Amino acid sequence: MRYHTPSSFDDAARLAAEASGVTRFLAGGTDVLVQMRAGAVLPDDLIDLKKIPGVTEIAQTGDGGWKIGVAVSGARLGAHEALVRDWPGVVEGMELVGSTQVQGRATLTGNLCNGSPAADSVPGLVAAGASVEITAPGGRRIVPVEDIPAGPGKTTLAAGEVISAILLPPRGAGGGDAYLRFIPRTEMDIAVVGCAVNLRVDGGRITEARVALGAVSPRIELVPACAEAIIGTSLDDAALDALAGAASAACNPIDDKRGTVEFRTEVAGVLAKRAARIAYARANGD
Amino acid sequence: MAKDEIREFRLVGTRPDRPDGLDKVTGRARYGADISAPGMLWGAVVRSPHAHARIVRIDSSKAEALAGVKAVVTRADFPTGLTGEDWNLQENTMAGEKALYDGHAVAAVAATSALRAQEAARLIEVEYEVLPHVIDVDDAIRPDAPVIREGAADATVPEGMPPNVVRYIDFGRGDIEAGFAEADLVMERSYKTEATHQGYIEPHACLGQLGEDGKGEMWVCTQGQWFIRRMCTAVLGLETSQLRVTPSEIGGGFGGKTTIFMEPLSLALSRKAGGRPVKIVMSRSEVLRATGPTASASMDVKIGMKKDGTLTAARAEFRMQGGAFPGAPVDMALYCAFAPYKLPAVQHIGYDVLANRPKCAAYRAPGSPMGAFAVESLLDEMCRELDLDPLEMRLKNAVNTGDTSSYGPKFGTIGLIETLEATRAHPNLSAPLGPNQGRGIATGYWFNHNGETSVSMALSEDGTVQVSIGTPDIGGSRASIALMTAETLGIPYEDVRVNVVETGALGVNEPTHGSRATFACGKAAVEAARQAIGEMCRRAASEWGIDPEAVEWMNGAAQPAGPNAGEFPPMTIAEIAGKMGSTGGPISGHHESVPDGVGASFGCHVVDVEVDPETGRTTILRYLVVQDAGRAIHPSYVEGQYQGGAVQGIGWALNEAYIYGEDGRLQNSVFLDYRVPVASDLPMIDTEIVEVPNPGHPFGVRGVGETGITPPLPAIANAIHQATGARLRQLPMSPPRVLAAIGEARQG
């Protein structure tokens, strides 16, 4: 195994493009190192991104959005008051990943690139309308987060492409977001169902909404039908029921060791309602 | 009460710091994997990926060609001709003709580093012919089920039973049909429990060394070093005394570390590698796939009850699979099932069944929790049907001292009624319940055990004392034995050091199992101390020139027994020790026996739960353990046992389960998906220690380690029923199952 410490994303992308065997990028390492220990993945080239300047920084962008470095840990994200004020749902999703120890290392980018349909931080990013900056040997491009997952353990990133930052849009007025997951325990578990709701209110009425579901289909999905169910409403019972129905209808889950098809389908609706109530309360400043 | 029961205690019942505490909280304590030796090699094990497969060929040539690889062993390196449980142990240690479960060892390799050993293990090519497999106990008992092993049934199995039934049990007394006829309500229900693992935090680890001369050493994480010695030497065909086994500190065992798994492999590899020591440390996945969980069970129970709650008859038929070998604890489950109750007629039937799963090992009150789940759930259902208070019903039928137990023997002094009364008086029983909340009550039982015990104590030159015991300290037994020794000798607790010693230092000791250590080793330590006191009195008598009978021992010193004995100032233990070299030599005490007077322990648990009606998720709001300890030597460790038992039971009840795919492979072989409770899942477990002293122990001790895992399974099922109206008769009561049951209950 070759261990690389490039000092720029361009170098990282070039190293990855030139590599021919199994390649892994290393940020927090909370997935990659575990996979290596278990013998599940034995990389030929391990490209550590942590030596690249700026990767542990959280910066406000000119338009009022946020740029989050690829090695920013969950713990740092949670300690950033202004970011938490803008995007509590994004941050609470990340903070559900792993234990306190894991929170000291694990990153949004790593959670996204691991490709798990149950990744806790990804539905919040999708609902927020976040995007990623991708560096490739040919240059850089910006892609919506929901276009990255490609199925369990897979992403749409090509060989030689590396995510160089996560970008959150400006929060703006009257916005609120929330993420909830279902696990049988209280922590240290993988989502059986995850749901993020991001919405904007004006005079009590929802004007914009984005809803994303996790762990109920091969990839984390943005569900427009859920958004349509609550846009234009004041989140009354009928709207909530319609939201739950749309969430359940969007599910395409599997039976596995963590939950059944019936359970995931039903609970997706339950979580959508509960997350929407929280997001709505946050948007209203309650 | 026994004549030697001591009623006024100076130390017993206090809560001093445990002697092993500092080492454990600072990380200095040496566990299994912490032991290394010069020239050490690392072992790795090749395991079957199939639930059931014939081993056609094993080719280790590529592994052996790898630099740093020093030895490869397969079953061909083990002796043949073993029988009975020795053969079972050998077959489980290393597969012979067939791999019998996913994770069954088929080869092992030793190399100069752990990584190299793992790489070599991947290079060992095993050709399998995959065979049909069976996982579920009810499936395994079907006539057309794949046969695990022809001719495995013992003499108890009647002709014509399915081939996977290897042991049959049938016992009872009274006229069962007359009992049911006399009842106002007869109910019969079926229940299932999943296999669960002990979930000890420390994976199995050992360092074994074996020379060409057949002499060996082993350092190992175990509950019983003599069991390791006997089993390893049996499996390898060695003389028992030629293997010296030293136990490490132990990060939990709960019964699962009373047997062997990879330990003989390290010895076999060492012998083949020219006697270099070989260390093997299991991964968590290996622990879950290849070590012994408890059995899974399928159970039918029928009970007759009068309108006033009086029990008239009971019948239990339990089927258990304990993996691909005989030994599911179906007998223990049946003995315990109705033990708390007076029953005029009772019948027990049991089937021990083979399936393609790992060989089960002991797990905290083996069998008792499954039986309790069935019986205590059905009693709760019947109490609801007859509108009876479940605690009063249990008091009405509770066994008392001298009663004949449901399984035959007469009870000695027991404290079930005192336990139930203490439960009734506890404030948790009157805590208000809100919507979606429910309260469940259940009782539980464990016999407790004595076992072969050998203990020595020796006086040091400064008057302090060392005690050598053979039972690894899992739950604070060093502190308890130091307290009992110091109490007997009349010296400070801090002056006693209790050492858990290797097999060369004492006679045979059974492991720390059966809740025996504080009872049996404590009793033996007291006897050893009394022997030393006798010798110290003789030394004082000799110096004073009076009869030894005229000397008594009080407050840590010898003194004249009365005014007629003469006027001498007390001679302290330190004074006696300081000159023992010139008064006759070392002073020690020793005791060995299979101590009689075991005291059984009953418990009663009360749990309050809240169930989320939209997700089926159960939250434990309040949890109370009330249990008879006989006498709590160190109450903190008694409470720790109560809390630990409750927590393991909560895990078993709610989420823990072995999940197998269609291919018979275990799908949840890591703690992420084998869901033991985490700390934030639990409230502080409330405890109430009942003390009905056991007359068979000088301080009244009963074992306390196991009873506590028995009531949680039914108590939680009963609470979920009250909270939701749904009756769960299959474990685990995971959110998908509870949510589905709530849906069915709503539809009526």
From TrEMBL, chain A:
Keywords: FAD, Flavoprotein, Oxidoreductase. GO terms for molecular function: FAD binding; oxidoreductase activity. This is Xanthine dehydrogenase family protein subunit M. Pfam families: CO_deh_flav_C, FAD_binding_5. The keyword Flavoprotein applies. It comes from Paracoccus alkanivorans. InterPro entries: CO_DH_flav_C, CO_DH_flav_C_dom_sf, Diverse_Substr_Oxidored, FAD-bd_PCMH, FAD-bd_PCMH-like_sf, FAD-bd_PCMH_sub1, FAD-bd_PCMH_sub2, Mopterin_DH_FAD-bd. It comes from the Bacteria. SMART domains: CO_deh_flav_C. Residues 1-173 form the FAD-binding PCMH-type domain.
Automatic annotation (TrEMBL), chain B:
SUPFAM superfamilies: CO dehydrogenase molybdoprotein N-domain-like (SSF54665), Molybdenum cofactor-binding domain (SSF56003). The keyword Oxidoreductase applies. Residues 26-132 form the Aldehyde oxidase/xanthine dehydrogenase a/b hammerhead domain. One of its GO terms (molecular function) is oxidoreductase activity. Pfam families: Ald_Xan_dh_C (PF01315), MoCoBD_1 (PF02738), MoCoBD_2 (PF20256). Keywords: Molybdenum, Oxidoreductase. This is Xanthine dehydrogenase family protein molybdopterin-binding subunit. It comes from Paracoccus alkanivorans.
